[in-house]
């Protein structure tokens, strides 16, 4: 009788161990499926706008600006330019020509663009918000003396790009900044909810 129980315990132990191993492998596999990217700024070279945004690319043979696909800025631009359905921007400050142009390009291609921003900063010189409004892009801004200080964008409701990075020229080639990109739904969902909350509130 005792022997039988002992054997049973060994079997239960083995099955439990195998179950835990399989569970961990599946979990690891699922995590690996998520896109993750961490970008740091400043980039060492100024990016080439033509390379990124001109329909024919940069035709200069001796272009001194960066065409480096591994640079943080060009990676960031690729995420924006690859948007298929929507760009939900929650951005304290936008003064960067290239990023603003990427947004308006996508808007003209039919991508839904919504922008939440800060009232004081949208009225400063260099802000791209009035250009966005002229294009027909819908913008909502906070109604308080506090700052709408977020710096994130949700792309196609599937990818979130977030960090310390405001969409300014200084953030590209001057400041130390960090940007995290992920399509993990557990991270994307709360960002999307935050965007919707602010969009409805303002
Ligand atoms: Zn170039």
Automatic annotation (TrEMBL):
GO molecular function annotation: RNA endonuclease activity producing 5'-phosphomonoesters, hydrolytic mechanism; zinc ion binding
Q: Tell me, what is an example of a GO biological process annotation in this record?
A: lipid catabolic process
Task: Show the CDD domains listed in the entry.
Answer: PLDc_vPLD6_like
Q: Which SMART domains match?
A: PLDc
Can you tell me where the transmembrane regions are? 6-26
Q: Name one GO cellular component term.
A: mitochondrion
Q: Which UniProt keywords apply?
A: Hydrolase, Lipid degradation, Lipid metabolism, Membrane, Metal-binding, Transmembrane, Transmembrane helix, Zinc, Zinc-finger
Ranges for domain C3H1-type come to 42-70
> PLD phosphodiesterase domain spans which residues?
144-171
UniProt catalytic activity: a cardiolipin + H2O = a 1,2-diacyl-sn-glycero-3-phospho-(1'-sn-glycerol) + a 1,2-diacyl-sn-glycero-3-phosphate + H(+)
User: Which InterPro entries does this UniProt record tie to the protein?
Assistant: PLD-like_dom, PLD_domain, PLipase_D/transphosphatidylase, Znf_CCCH
The stretches annotated as zinc fingers (C3H1-type) lie at 42-70
Q: Its family? A: Belongs to the phospholipase D family. MitoPLD/Zucchini subfamily.
This chain's protein is named Mitochondrial cardiolipin hydrolase
Which taxonomic lineage is given here?
Answer: Eukaryota, Metazoa, Chordata, Tunicata, Ascidiacea
């Amino acid at each position: 009788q005792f022997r039988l129980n002992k054997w049973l315990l060994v079997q239960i132990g083995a099955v439990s161990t195998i179950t835990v191993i399989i569970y961990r492998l599946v979990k690891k596999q699922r995590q690996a499926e998520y896109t993750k990217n961490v970008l740091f700024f400043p980039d060492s070279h100024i990016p080439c706008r033509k390379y990124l945004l001109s329909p024919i690319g940069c035709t200069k043979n001796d272009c001194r600006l960066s065409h480096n696909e591994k640079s943080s800025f060009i990676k960031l631009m690729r995420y924006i330019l690859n948007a298929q359905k929507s760009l939900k921007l929650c951005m304290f400050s936008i003064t960067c020509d290239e990023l603003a142009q990427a947004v308006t390009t996508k808007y003209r291609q039919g991508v839904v663009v919504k922008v939440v921003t800060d009232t004081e900063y949208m009225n400063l010189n260099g802000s791209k918000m009035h250009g966005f409004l002229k294009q027909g892009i819908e913008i909502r801004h906070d109604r308080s003396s506090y700052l709408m200080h977020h710096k994130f964008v949700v792309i196609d409701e599937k990818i979130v790009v977030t960090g310390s990075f405001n969409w300014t020229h200084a953030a590209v080639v001057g400041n130390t900044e960090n940007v995290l990109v992920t399509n993990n739904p557990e991270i994307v969902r709360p960002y999307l909810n935050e965007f919707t909350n602010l969009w409805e509130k303002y």
